[in-house]
Design brief:
Elements (H helix, E strand, L loop, with lengths): L4 E5 L1 H4 L2 H9 L11 E5 L5 H5 L10 H7 L5 H20 L6 H26 L10 H26 L4 E4 L12 H9 L8 E5 L8 H5 L3 H12 L4 E6 L8 H4 L9 E3 H9 L7 H9 L4 E5 L8 E4 L11 E14 L9 H11 L6 E4 L3 E6 L3 H14 L4 E13 L8 H11 L6 E4 L5 E7 L3 H14 L3
Parallel strand pairs: 1-2, 1-5, 2-4, 3-4, 5-7, 6-8
Antiparallel strand pairs: 7-8, 9-11, 9-12, 10-11, 12-14, 13-14
EC number: 2.7.2.4
GO molecular function, one term: kinase activity
InterPro entries: AceGlu_kinase-like_sf, ACT-like_dom_sf, ACT_Aspartokinase, Asp/Glu/Uridylate_kinase
Length: 470
């Protein structure tokens, strides 16, 4: 049995690197305690937003500017600003032992290398025989890789300066001519690493034949983390976040009222991912689950706390609700068509439009003449989707409406009367329930409420199902 762990550190946490050193990487460890770990790091908080686009407000980064502009060179100014931002991060890390002249040189080499590639690509596509669209995913991957390489290289440097035998494992594909498959690339990278005497610092991005971003977009860091854990047969995977996995968002219900979840299963983790509250990307969880590797979610700033252990087998001994979660960035897309009755292919036809726009339903309602999908996507995409559905079904009425989804989740929710209690809690809070989604599998129940009542719904359910004795 292997003894090592694979640990991922998120971007927001990496931006507080002095605490990362004290709580995760070094702390009170010494000698052999420093090893038998593999550390996978994300880019510092906000860097990937600058390189691609802002994850939440979609403000344009280098990639967005490059891909949407035919003649403007604003992307070149933007990448220069990213370079300056990275060097400012380097300066902040100098007191921790970073050689900033070496670190700045590393940043500028990567930035200028990418700038040259983009300039050459622009010239090449100007001749008409090459189409820029065919290369944009490669551009996106190349840009995103800069952030992970920057943070991993800095971490390696700082640890080395403190006498730790760290090793920089660059999976980003920089200046490599061989394009290996994902699994093969990681096997090759770890083939000669002595985990008992070396501490690998790994880039969260892996350049590979499959193209991680094409499938997982910005979930690539967790895919790298998962694949490294599976291939090296880790004892445990650990994700260090800036918060505990709790019964609800502390900002909504209050830190004094939330309950830290000591254990749950991968099934619940998948439901959280669907709601945009990922403990881990569901595809990353899939590999670990199949390999029997448990996942631990830890608060990076409370290193002594064991955190939440996620396994395939966990089931609460007592039937109960564990988590109240949800999202309020949801749009209801309702298709009502009297001619739909008796036609079994209508839903398939509608789903073809979702596939064409790269959208996936978070939930769905269906009756004789109405199909309603709940999706999270930009409004302009939703409008295009609605127009496409209308063209396929000219007699249909298409309704678009902003709503919120609120879920109660648990590894064992065989609680008698749980649905009644949940609806009662919402009703007593003056919240109308527009739809309910409940499966036979006792993992979660989902409620559709008005968008502006999202936080009120979370609070009401938390009080009724977790703060009171039901």
């Amino acid at each position: 049995m292997t003894h090592h762990t694979v640990e991922k550190i998120g971007g927001t946490t990496m931006s507080q690197f002095d605490k990362v050193l004290d709580n995760i990487l070094i702390g009170d460890r010494s000698g052999s305690q420093l090893y038998n770990r593999i550390i996978v790091v994300s880019a510092y908080g906000g860097v990937t937003d600058l390189l691609l686009e802002h994850k939440k407000n979609r403000e344009q980064g280098v990639y967005a500017l490059f891909s949407e502009s035919d003649s403007s060179w604003t992307w070149s100014d933007a990448i220069s600003k990213v370079s300056d931002h990275m060097c400012r991060i380097n300066a902040e890390l100098e007191p921790l032992g970073l050689d900033i002249s070496f670190a700045d040189r590393f940043v500028r080499e990567r930035i200028e290398g990418v700038r040259s590639c983009l300039l050459d690509l622009t010239r090449l596509c100007s001749y008409g025989h090459f189409q820029l669209d065919e290369h944009l995913m490669t551009v996106r991957e190349m840009l995103s890789a800069i952030g992970e390489a920057h943070s991993a290289h800095n971490t390696y440097q700082i640890l080395s300066a403190q006498g730790i035998n760290a090793r920089f494992v660059d999976l980003s594909g920089w200046m490599e001519t061989e394009n290996l498959a994902f699994e093969e690339k990681i096997r090759q990278a770890f083939a000669d690493i002595d985990l008992e005497n070396e501490l690998p610092i790994v880039t969260g991005y892996t350049q590979c034949r499959e193209g991680l971003m094409d499938t997982y977009d910005r979930g690539y860091t967790e895919m790298t983390f998962s694949k490294v854990a599976v291939i090296t047969e880790a004892r445990e995977g650990i994700i260090h976040k800036e918060f505990h996995l709790s019964s609800a968002d502390p900002k909504t219900v209050g830190e004094d009222k939330t309950i830290i979840i000591g254990g749950t299963n991968y099934d619940v983790s998948d439901q959280l991912s669907d709601l945009g509250m990922e403990a881990i990307h569901p595809q990353a969880a899939k590999g670990m689950r199949k390999s029997g590797i448990p996942l631990r979610i830890k608060n990076a700033f409370e290193p002594e706390h064991p955190g939440t252990l996620i396994t395939s087998e966990y089931k609460s001994t007592e039937p109960r609700v564990e988590i109240i979660a949800g999202r309020n960035d949801v749009t209801l897309v309702e298709c009502w068509d009297q001619d739909m009755v008796g036609h079994i292919d209508r839903d398939t036809d509608i789903m073809a439009h979702f596939t064409a726009f790269g959208l996936r339903s978070l939930a769905k309602d269906i009756n004789a003449n109405t199909i309603t999908h709940y999706v999270s996507a930009p409004l302009n995409t939703i409008k295009k989707l609605s127009k496409a559905i209308k063209q396929s079904f000219p007699s249909a009425d298409i309704l678009i409406r902003k709503v919120a989804l609120v879920s109660i989740l648990g590894s064992n929710m065989n609680v008698p009367g749980i649905l009644h209690e949940a609806v009662l809690a919402l009703t007593e809070a003056g919240i109308d329930v527009h739809a309910i989604h409940k499966c036979m599998r006792p993992v979660g129940i989902q409620f559709v409420v008005d968008e502006e009542l999202f936080q009120d719904a979370v609070k009401a359910l938390h009080v009724k199902l977790l703060e009171e004795d039901c």
